[in-house]
Design brief:
Arc Repressor Mutant, subunit A; 2 domains; mainly alpha; Tetracycline Repressor, domain 2
């Protein structure tokens, strides 16, 4: 197992036989040493992942990630959050994940692709796992409320806000990062949610000709202006009450645009 080392100014913590690199004040590193040796890829694993397969593409297609890949994506998310995109390295991500850098590159062809995978895994928390049950048991407006609440609460989490700020900052210098965030974040969510709105339209609840366009509009109605205010540091004193108001206003506005009555 790895030991977690808190690196603070003027103080070094290091176990016997362990090594670590210097890090910014307050950062967390996973120590490398006898307790944290990295397991090499087996030949079968190298054959599976070493042919330029995009793990982000596999995840987007709904394929489950194996345990080691999940560890890499989780380590990447933590590293991006503590160091930013530019400050994170594949070496650091491999260290935190407890794998070799070769293992990371066997699964992800670049740091940009790994950033996209981290974004996508975060977005999965925005959708409930029991979507079918929600659709079957609730009226259409309540389905929108339930899904909208989970989505809004998800994007307002500190981690999600931090990833958005990282992507926005880096996009100015590297447009590919902004494109990666868009493709693996908002556009991924649109593709996942469009079939839900299409099914609600079939039930006669809404008039929707273009489900993907409707998802974009619904997302804006359910999140703004609360999301932008929180993103820029102007959050309300009572977040729960603010979320309730935002959801009700969003659902009401969506019904005015797409409702059948």
């Amino acid at each position: 197992m790895h030991r977690i080392l808190w690196l603070t100014a003027g103080k070094r913590e290091q176990g016997p036989g362990q090594t670590f690199r210097r890090a910014p004040f307050g950062a967390i590193l996973m120590a490398s040493g006898p307790e944290g040796r990295k397991r090499r890829e087996t030949p079968s694993e190298e054959k599976k992942w070493g042919k330029g397969i995009s793990m982000s593409e596999a995840a987007a297609a709904g394929e489950a990630l194996d345990e080691k890949t999940e560890a890499i994506v989780d380590a990447a998310r933590k590293t991006f959050l503590t160091r930013g995109f530019d400050g994170a390295s594949m070496d650091q991500i491999a260290l935190v994940a407890g794998v070799s850098k070769r293992t990371v590159y066997n699964r992800f062809r670049s740091k940009e692709e790994l950033f996209g995978a981290a974004i996508m895994e975060s977005c999965k928390d925005y959708l409930p796992v029991d979507v079918d049950d929600i659709e079957a048991s609730l009226p259409p407006d309540e389905v929108i409320r339930a899904l909208g609440r989970q989505f809004l609460c998800g994007v307002l989490k500190p981690e999600a806000l931090s990833l958005r700020r990282i992507a926005s900052f880096e996009a100015g210098r590297n447009p590919a990062i902004g494109k990666t965030y868009l493709e693996h974040g908002a556009e991924w969510m649109v593709k996942k949610c469009a079939p839900i709105l299409a099914r609600l339209a079939v039930r006669g609840a809404y008039r929707i000709d273009n489900p993907e366009e409707a998802v974009w509009q619904l997302g804006a109605l359910l999140t703004e202006p609360l999301y932008t205010r929180v993103l820029l540091g102007g959050g309300p004193d009572d977040m729960d009450a603010a979320i309730d108001r935002q959801i009700e206003r969003g659902v009401t506005a969506f019904k005015k645009i797409y409702g059948t009555k």
